[in-house]
Write a structure and sequence with these properties.
InterPro entries: Arginase, Ureohydrolase, Ureohydrolase_dom_sf. It is built from 11 helices and 8 strands. It has 301 residues and is an alpha/beta fold. An 8-stranded parallel beta sheet has the order 2-1-3-8-7-4-5-6, with helices on both faces. It starts with a strand and ends in a 6-residue tail after the last helix.
Length: 301
């Protein structure tokens, strides 16, 4: 039995497509709390986290002098989310953050690393999200959270919640990537970050990749899962903003997550980029609930 806090992170400031802020409530409407409770877990829904910027539809395209979109809004939201996540851990509960765009991971991981000094991260995503203001082709911060957490880019983002880089290069495993920018490729190679592309997933199988990733992170004091639904193939996932062909199939994902759920090192997770405005009858949110069940121990028998 896991004591789970569902924390809604309804931010869309990290990218240009409106609607992803509705993701947490779309997933709730598909019975997230009820399904996790039926697995025998103690589940509390803590509601949505908000910073001081609430009118996303009115201030969603501001760029700072570095060309970063909605910098102040992302920073403010990240601080608020980090505090909520730390509070959940203070109460010996598992923070399960539902987004919202992937910039929210700046806040979620910053909150977790107040409690875990040697945190490992499984980053399951079509993208590397390891850009900074110099390498990003768009200025969208949802393509930068991992870079920020590694200490790259704006100091005020890097220092959110507590000063300095939150993660170590050797404690990260990227899984399912298939759309890396030039600067990201160079950074990954330069710092020796463990990276399993979709070619690796197809060759080895996601179950083997997850097993290898867990072995790589076995000396960490905890593991955070950051799962972007665009890691899945667009044939199965419609309601997300940056789809890339050739992704993980849902059956593969569930098998991999079932293996992950068995480790005692998993201490927190975020599930991001569900956008019901571009979905088909909320199918992506429904699949997000299934994915969530497997994170927390569901199996096919």
């Amino acid at each position: 039995m896991v004591k789970i806090d569902i924390i809604g992170a309804p931010t869309a400031f990290g990218q240009p497509k409106l609607g992803v802020s509705l993701g947490p409530d779309a997933v709730r409407l598909c019975g997230l709390k009820e399904h996790l409770s039926q697995l025998g877990h103690d589940v509390a829904d803590k509601g949505n986290v908000y910073g001081k910027y609430r009118a996303e539809y009115g201030n969603h395209s501001e760029r700072n002098e570095e060309g970063l979109m909605n910098f102040n809004q992302v920073k403010d939201f990240s601080e608020a989310l980090a505090a909520s996540v730390e509070g959940s851990l203070d109460n010996n509960r598992f923070p399960f953050i539902v987004g919202g765009d992937h910039s929210l991971s700046i806040g979620s991981v910053s909150g977790v690393t107040k409690k875990y000094n040697n945190l490992g991260v499984l980053w399951i995503d079509a993208h590397g999200d390891i850009n900074n203001s110099d390498t990003s082709p768009t200025g969208n911060i949802h393509g930068m959270p991992l870079g920020v957490l590694l200490g790259e880019g704006s100091r005020s983002l890097v220092d959110i919640h507590h000063e300095g880089a939150k993660l170590k290069h050797e404690n990260i495993v990227l899984i399912g990537v298939r759309d890396l920018d030039t600067g990201e490729k160079a950074y990954i190679k330069e710092h020796g970050i463990k990276c399993y592309t979709m070619s690796d997933v197809r060759r080895l199988g996601l179950d083997v990749v997850i097993t290898k990733a867990l072995k790589h992170l076995q000396d960490c004091d905890g593991i955070h899962l950051s799962l972007d639904v665009d890691s899945l193939d667009p044939l199965e996932i419609k309601g997300t903003g940056t789809k890339v062909d050739g992704g993980i199939f849902l059956s593969e994902m569930l098998l991999g997550l079932n293996i992950l759920s068995k480790t005692e090192l998993l201490v927190s997770a975020d599930l991001v980029e569900v956008n019901p405005l571009i979905d088909n009858c909320n199918e992506t949110a429904e699949k997000a609930v299934v994915i969530s069940e497997y994170i927390f121990g569901q199996s096919q028998i």
